[in-house]
Sequence to fold (240 residues):
Amino acid sequence: MKWVLVTGGSRGIGAAIARLAVARGYAVAVNYRRRAEEAEKLVAELGGAAVALPADLSRESEVVRLFAQLDKLGPLCGLVNNAGILERQSDILGMDEGRLQRVFATNVFGPILCCREAVRRMSTQGGGAIVNISSIAARLGSPGEYVDYAASKGALDTFTIGLAREVASRGIRVNGVRPGVIHTEIHASGGEAGRAERLGPGAPLGRSGQPEEIAGAVLWLLSEEASYTTGAILDVSGGR
Ligand code: NDP
Fold:
């Protein structure tokens, strides 16, 4: 079985990626942080080719533990660093060190540590593919809402470019996807549940996106069809 780990795969964009990955014949490890019920429900829907694995990826010890669990399943051919958070909409005056630590630990440190563990394994297995889920915020900056989140995604993009060049000779491709505004619960965690509805008409395509529209791009980057693509960051943002 070809295993793919989708971090934060229990809901939102990650769940859409997990569903499409199973449909394309992968076995999927669905990581989540806290909401076990949703992860278990998704795994039941996906059938035998999926498992739910809890781990808070902002903590190195939990990253290491998660990959040790994956080792028992079989070789890892793909990693999708999808888990990400933002905090309440605020200008910079409302941001303190604790918030910055939380945002960067989940959005930057977690993906980097997961990549380290994946590269360690993929290097000895003849290669693999990694996709880092960034955000169009890395280009737009998210003024007045969450410049910290945008900066964390900018860091992730730079990491994607560097790691792609570093591990290309080991047969590992590393790419990024920058979603635009997508209908998920992440906006509620920022304090505006209706944000996707509000911003949709302002996108060149005239609407916000659906999680499935991100999943298609991710599955392409994971696949052999993207065999000559590495270090690329694909905007899937309705033209923003
Ligand atoms: P959601 O808030 O809907 O889901 C987040 C997922 O990540 C959940 O499965 C959650 O698990 C998990 N998660 C959060 N923190 C951690 C952690 N520390 N360790 C492990 N898992 C964690 O988010 P979206 O689906 O909207 O976003 C997915 C990715 O796409 C993020 O990286 C986000 O930044 C990015 N993105 C989203 C956009 C959007 O408009 N929705 C736009 C651009 C980028 P649990 O359920 O247990 O809490």
About this structure: Strands lie at 3-6, 27-32, 50-54, 76-81, 128-133, 172-179, 233-236.
